[in-house]
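Field reference: "sequence" (input) and "structure" (output). Example, Hexuronate transporter:
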Amino acid sequence: MSSIQTSKMTNFRWVICALLFLATTVNYMDRQVLSLTWKDFIAPEFHWTDDDYGTITGWFSIFYAIANLFAGKFIDWMGTKKGYLIAIFVWSTGAVMHAGCGWVAMQIEGYSSIEALRLVQRGSDAAVAIATVSVWLFLSCRLILALGEAGNFPAAIKVTAEYFPKKDRAFSTSIFNSGASIGALAAPATIPLLARAMGWEMAFVIIGVLGYVWMGLWIWLYDKPNKSQYVNQAELNYIEQDSDIAEVQDKQEPKEEKTIGFLDCFTYRQTWSFIVGKFMTDGVWWFFLFWAPAYFSDQYGYTSDSTMAIALIFTLYAITTILSIGGGYLPTYFVDKKGMNPYIGRMRAMLIFACFPLLGLFAQPAGEISPWCPAIIIGLLGAGHQAWSANLYSTIGDMFPKSTIATITGIGAMAGGLGSFLINKGSGMLFTYAEGQGSAFSFLGFEGKPAGYMIVFCICAVAYLIGWIIMKILVPKYKPIIVED
């Protein structure tokens, strides 16, 4: 514990929150490199279709889901300091490895880059082989990326529970969770330009190396609050104020909480409520994360490195970032000003945020007025998602003991990954099919690929309200889980 003996409370918990924010930012930038380079840089080189890209993003999602099933338990077992370090090392290494996929594909098929490009342009059988090999190589690197990235949110949520009292967790979670938006915001402003100036390979390398820099900061700054030299007694008392539900650890010799067994977690309705919330909504965010650059390229002809595409995607994620942070404060308002308990206040806020995605029904029709219309609408939808997500994560800390938080987070993230697999793989198949059918494929007045986008937008629009209703049925009122010794 800190030797600082002053009456003024330190605020080191916000430094830790900033580290979580940086890790999440790097996490999403690493994830975005492929989505911002595949359509205009990689696909022409390897003759990829939408279905190929859907295969890569879909299987990334399913492997991410499987990894999340165990990532939380790994973080609980390894501890947040070591567990987070291992996670970011693995995903940063996987990100950098993408850069070698093109070279390895050529070596396997025995062609030089120039020969391969000519074969792809001619659409020969050799081109099909190169495309297939490249897809599997990229997919392998994505699986390594997914394995490491699965540890980010279980570790970050566990750290948030360590450093913040319940009433502040949604706000602090919304801050670090906004790193997803900042990462998505910084990515289109940097990655396409890097790819154009230095090649798509260097874009993967430069962004991937950022994770190694973060590791040094984490080793230097992180320790548990009651052991940190930067946290004084006043701040520790603030962090551990939830003594009414037995969450304060003994300051001299912390007690070990009994952990809920992995399979036993599935016997609680609270677990299934979180699973439903993640399964129904995570795929929406991942769809826009992976497909937004391709959407503006397909619908309006703006390549990812064009000024207009960068401006549209930047605007989209700027709206998401700015509005989503305020969403994390709304439950605090309900608790402090309206006297609600944290869970009721959180569910009230989530109902409000579940209405934002309904705007997605108008994204495709409004696009006929201007491409700025869907950019703004998707930004509002993304803000609703991020605010929803921050509060959804915080429901775990409301109802589960700290010793099980990372495990429940991992289980929920697995469900979110499954939902993301369905929407990403399904979208790739749908777009390839719709494009091939042309005017013979229609939906709500749209034909061909635009009709495919309209179908997916409709699914995204109603997913949150359906998810909220099911969650409310499963857990109608606040009911924390107490594990008996």
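Confidence is low (pLDDT under 50) at residues 1-6, 244-254.
The chain is about 75% helix and 0% strand.
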